[in-house]
UniProtKB/TrEMBL annotation:
Gene3D superfamilies: Golgi alpha-mannosidase II. This is Alpha-amylase.
């Protein structure tokens, strides 16, 4: 489940007990550098697509860095 609160904040929740490797989320609000507020992990978004590994029952709060 992905919830875009604005162009600068995205919440991702994974409600499965299976790990997802290189999972792609399309139609991301903006390209650029995003930081997971919970883990400080960095993601570079290109072509409005996020590619991430999701652990079972994982959650991320991504904030766009300007």
């Amino acid at each position: 489940l992905v919830y875009a609160r604005s162009q600068e904040l995205v919440i991702i929740t994974h409600f499965s007990n299976e790990e997802k490797k290189d999972y792609e989320i399309n139609n991301f609000p903006q390209n650029g550098k995003w930081i997971d507020w919970l883990s400080n992990e960095e993601y570079q978004i290109d072509n409005n697509t996020l590619k991430a590994n999701l652990k079972p029952f994982d959650g991320k709060i991504l904030v766009l860095q300007k």
